Amino acid sequence: MSDAVAADLTEVRAAAELLAFGLQRRARPVEGSDYRALLDRYRTELRFRDVVDTMAEGLGLEALGTPRSGIVLAPEPGGPFATRLTDFRAMDQSERLVFGLVLIGIAAYAYPQDVDFDDPETKLVDLVKVDEFLRAAVDTLKAQEGGEGTPEERARVAAEIYSDMPQLITTQTGRRGRGCTLKAIEDALGWLVDQGAAREATSLGPDVYHLTDRFRLLVADSAGGAALDALRELRAAS
């Protein structure tokens, strides 16, 4: 085997290792770690970056950025690494609509303006405040125009369901029960934690979460939509 081929294979292996770190939600590129060394190579070596990006594309992934928390990878819809709500728990149609509404509500609450996507500081979100924000926004969402099957129609229906849900239902053990909006937000934030897009800020309270760079870059890269745009405008004006 020639030295050139050996060098190429070494780069391919290193690229695969970096992508593997990026797919491990809780991996962190701490000083002196292999992850940090590979991340520094990606940032500074154009050839290595090309190898990583090409390999990621072949796997149905896209590298969105390399903030302090590590390389952020976005899966292509339908790809082998695509996240599906069925991976979370069984949901009926109403629950799926509310889940989607809560996710865009969290995004709008944390990043109301485009400049927020360039801010590397993690955003804090409070579960109760997100609920208050969404309840104040339901009338705006109900006014979304769009025919049957459109994202606007789904936003309208989701807003109607959300506004009809009680804020709190408690179980016999004192926990939040399904069917209330606070539980829906708690579940969505818990799902984001599992995806490496958020982490609990327990020192600040039981219902406070940090949104990570992964979530920031994923939201910035998303197509958005009329509902998200409307919520961001409301949040920016508040």
UniProtKB/TrEMBL annotation:
Could you tell me the superkingdom of the organism this chain comes from? Bacteria
Protein name per UniProt: Uncharacterized protein
Species the sequence originates in: Pseudonocardia halophobica
